[in-house]
Amino acid sequence: MNLDQIVEQAVSPLAEALAAFVFFEIPLFGGRWPFVVLWLLAGAVFFTVVHRGINLRGIPLAIRVLRGEFDVPDAPGEVSHAQALSTALSGTVGIGNIGGVAVAIAAGGPGATLWMIVAGFLGMATKYVECTLGVRYRQHNPDGSVSGGPMFYLRRGFEERGFPRLGAFLGHFYAVGIVLGCLGIGNMFQSNQAFEQFLFATGGQDSWFVGRGWLFGLMLAAGVGAVIIGGVQVIARVTVRLVPFMGILYLVGTLGVIAINAGHLPGAVAAIIEGAFSPQGVAGGVVGTMVIGFQRAVFSNEAGIGSASIAHAAVKTDRPATEGLVALFGPFVDTVVICTLTALVIGVTAQADPVFLEQTTFEGVGMTSEAFRRAVVWSPYPLAVAALLFAFSTALAWSYYGLKGWTSLVGESPAARHLFNLVFCGFVALGSTIQLQSVLDFSDAMVFVLCVPNILGLVVLTPVVKQELARFLERV
Known about the structure:
The chain is mostly helical. Helices cover 76% and strands 3% of the residues. It has one domain: Amino acid/polyamine transporter I, CATH 1.20.1740.
């Protein structure tokens, strides 16, 4: 029995049990909704209504914050607003934006795209709440660094309301979950999918790298380790340059493919709109398409999971609401812009070849690569570069998320930080070497089960967010 089989047998029952809780389906409105999707969607709608459409009305003020109009030179924190946003974006803009969209379209048809956009818009309000709280309840460490996120606002927020034991339990539960989850969704999955795209670009099964995933993994792990050893300030300096570069690279590529197929663009847009409201195509009709779109969106931008608030908590500010406003751009860029562009690339390809979605043997990243290749034969090569950068940047952000979860449990000692970084880099190398589906399933489910205590905490602490916005608006 090899290592893969041993680990599969050990982890598979845990993965199945956890997934059964997180993804169990609830019959509603003529369809079947995974619990996690309903929970996150209900939270997003609640925050959008309670905060009076902050998704839209907060954007002009958020732009002013990003431009530095309200910066205080001696404010506590470690990174600028732009750096905090880039670090958080690097954690959400990843392989899922390339391959996850293809999975959604294959399952729910082009119409799933529209519901992804709707869910991304609603998720902006959730990000605003959790990132405001991330700064409000962050911890200032003796070495000048800061630590924040759900681990802290759940514990301290509930303690303020007279429930210290509940807050301590929820905070520790979140910390354990983010540590376990970061090794899968933000680590092994990223390196695994980056290697798959790398193989696709270098000859597929004829590539010299077939069977040499360990070499690719070691190189990726070395790059990740070289950055994360410097802490959040180095991670932020890298991501503030890397995120715009990879975003522009992917933007140019997608717009190029769309321009080449410009004649098919109206048909692709029409298919998205018609498919979103058409009862044909998937089980459950309109609701089935809606569920798939919402599910893909919440899996992509992670609004409600709370992870992004860990990165945003490191910002230099004395007004927590400023970072909540900046965080509005996270779901917008990740889901409304990048996921939509991916969907349009697949859409125009499907319009040019109506049997593309039915006959292609590729799935996930491979389907998106094939759509690019049909427009420009050499396009999988820059797409492989973009996929590698997406995986790299996502690993950087999630290393920080996992580290803060780990140090909130064991303390902020240098030895604790070095141990976690070493283990994290080891899992990066492992991800592109072996297939451990149950490990990935377990970590994915572990991350999404975190939305249960997180959304609960966000609802309870919403009055604090309103107070923080009022304090900031007084200054404005």
